[in-house]
């Protein structure tokens, strides 16, 4: 599923970490919210 920056900004950091993990992004706990958003958008 494609996300946009507004949708991702509305999510909690913990939700973004779960999403990132599901997408196969390594070590999502190491990133701040803004970094996670851009990692997810890059996938």
Descriptive overview:
The chain is mostly helical. The protein has one domain (5-42). Helices cover 60% and strands 0% of the residues. It is built from 3 helices and no strands. It has helices at residues 5-10, 13-22, 33-42. The longest helix has 10 residues, at 13-22.
Provide a quick synopsis of the model:
The protein is mostly helical and 43 residues long. The protein has helices at residues 5-10, 13-22, 33-42.
Fraction of residues in β-strands: under 5%
Topology as a string of helices (H) and strands (E): HHH
Helix content: 55-70%
How far the N terminus sits from the C terminus, by CA atoms, comes to 10 Å
Number of discrete helical segments: 3
| Overall SS class | mainly alpha
Biggest β-sheet description: none
Radius of gyration: 9 Å
- The number of distinct structural domains comes to 1
- The number of strands is 0
Q: What sort of overall outline do the alpha carbons produce when their principal axes are compared?
A: globular
pLDDT < 50 runs, ≥5 residues = none
* Mean pLDDT over all positions: 96
